[in-house]
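Notes to self after the call with IL:
- keep both proteins in one doc
- input above output, always
- annotate only the second one for now

Protein 1:
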Amino acid sequence: MIIFVSILFTCSIYAEDKPLIREIIINKKDSVFRHTFYYDESRNKAMENRYYLNGYTIFPLSRTEWIYEDNKCVTQREQVWKNGVWKTIHLINSEYNGIQKKKEVYVQVTDGIEKAEKDVVYNYENGVLESILNSRLNKGNPDITQRISFNYNEKKQLIRQTIMSGNNALQPDTSLMVRYVYNNSGSPDSVILTNNIHETKINESLTLYFYDKVNGNMTSQIHKKWNIQTSKWENDTKIEYVYDHNNRLIKELYAHYTTLFWTMNTMYEQIYDSNGILLQKIMYKPIYNQWRKIYTIEYIGTENGKPNLMESKYNFWGGETGQYVENFIPYYFNDEIAIVNADRMEIKYNLETTITTNILFGTDRLKIYPNPSNGVFYISLEDSYIQHWEVYNLNGEIMRQNNNAYRTGVVDLTGLSDGLYMIKATTDDNKELKQKIVINKTK
């Protein structure tokens, strides 16, 4: 059975002075997956392709495309490879009021027929988010299924979040309330979770946060549960954090409460090089009254100041020493912290200093990238709506053509041989744009 891991499904914009991730290879047990990423001229993530690798054979799995207007993501399209063609299965269409998102519509697509299933409406007051309404769409009419409301203090810090769900989310029988308290430094001091059932408040959980008074680093957090019989908070779990002299996190210790004592159950250790780059993350368990290594995530090699090869392997007390073990591996996806479930992963970056490399110049040139490419290109949608495109070889023969049934920038020429081609695209206002493109599968 093939299981693929999605990296990110969000619209993202990245800093201009850093190379961007173009490919991630994920090893998961006996399966190997390849994720490729494309960005537009504004460094917005425009497309992610996911493949399953079997030796030298590549099998397409799925694709996500993000379409932008004025640097705001207006459409997210999910596609799967089925019976030799890409088929759209889901859409998320977004509307904005200035820079603030005001609505999302989730659409299911079956055999090319679109059906709006739910929408999410965002309401603002004085520039901050006041509520989120989730609705099922019944014959085009919204039935509100969840309302999330937000309350803030004078510093615009979130102090209360209320989640009301059910058939009538505006006047529900039950709701969930999360209350936030801050210390004098503005950091979270406590979070209390309360259930309201038929207008009766029932405490659920309390989380307390503690900090170093000198540098402000969080030193521990304690999670408590409410005991209905005694009407008291009782200790449940605890996490302690240890830092080095450079304020880098080096240890996390996890414990659970048993009767009268805290019992340590897990420890994570992080080891850095002299430049502060993470080298290892080691998980320990208490065995025979000593911390024993279970597995190690190694961060090997460095590119653009970040590790580009990560491997998760057993230590002696976890399994066969050196054997790969599936794990949740934290890493940096460009400027964002992400986590992938794998036993090994490799990251490759764009080599070009700019996202778009074009060969033809002039008013009729087509903006397409990356160029050269391994066979999948992306047309810039900033200036034009491409309705039709054709690809010619050096003899002038049409090798591939497509009529776009919807707005998209994808040009998939995977089946063509390496070489130089010409692509001609027609816009919605009948302009013809051209560009020489190069396919190089070793890229």
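Protein 2 (the one to annotate):
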Amino acid sequence: MILAVETSTRAFSVFIKDGKMEANLEILFSLTHSQGIVQTVDFMIKRAGKSIKDIEAIYAGLGPGSFTGIRVGLSFANTLSQVLDIPLAGTTSLDILSFEVDRWNSSIVPFIKSRKEEVYASFYKNGVRFDEIKVLKANEFIDYIYDVNPDYLISSNEDFMEVLKPIIENNKINNSKIDRIKSIKKNFSYPKAKFIPTVVEREEIPLMREYLKPVYIRTF
């Protein structure tokens, strides 16, 4: 059985798979990931008729996103890996988020709002990340979208409302950029644990018995 956890945003999710059996649980707007993740994993494993000792590998989201959420998820994954002596692997929250749409025929900009009124973002085309993960202020993010010209923007509804809506409604950018951003297809979602094993496999990330480290992107 494999276990995957994703805790980098205001939502968190847990996914388990054992052969053809799959179970996925997503909890939105959790303010206490640290309290919820252990109970959620325990609940799902018991409902599947399994034991925690049946877990053979762990997958986790590495961020960027909420520093606290990322620490909670990785602390849980790393501790469980050590206690059970099983391998683990992880990938970035933006790589996970990009799986929400048809990756193979689309260009995508997934983004996650940070606490500093900045945005974590990158650009994907035909299933491949073409750019490093960036930290952008709101006006820089608008320019970035306009420059890379994606087919889709992907983020939570809350992040769309907090990042893009105020700028567009207050006419803080020129009309051509506003029109272009309005025309881009929107997909509202959070990074989800159920996609992590697939992302790890396609990116050929090895399962290892080493501590997973968070992806913290900072500006100076």
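Annotation: The chain has two domains: 2-92+191-202, 94-188. Residues 2-92+191-202 form a domain with the Nucleotidyltransferase; domain 5 fold (CATH 3.30.420.40).
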